[in-house]
Amino acid sequence: MVVCYKRGVDEISPTYAAIGKALRAAREKKGLYQKHIAGSLGVTDSNVGQIEAGQTRATISRLEDYAQLVDAELHVVLVVPGDAKSELVGSLIELLPTMSRKDVRSLQALMDTWKFDESDQQATG
What pLDDT, on a 0 to 100 scale, did the predictor assign at position 9? Predict the structure, then answer.
């Protein structure tokens, strides 16, 4: 399963609906109910329903936790236009103080996977 965060998208992305559908299918395959997932995540049944319906922007760590509960693999892909990378990094730095340790670790893992094109490599090294 791939989670795709696109910079500048204000509405709930169709990607969230696809993620939710995949999480629901994995949950049902394991024979779990929304209340089981909700209890483990510390959220309401309604929140789980919103995630499964793609009606909310769940955090990366929340999606990772959900995926782990249903034995699903979660891959996070961050799609950012090349000219917006420095703005994105600045925004992430501003958000760091408000992030949980788990979200920071998830962000670090995500950043470790970032691929840079030749122009980025020339600019940084």
Answer: 44
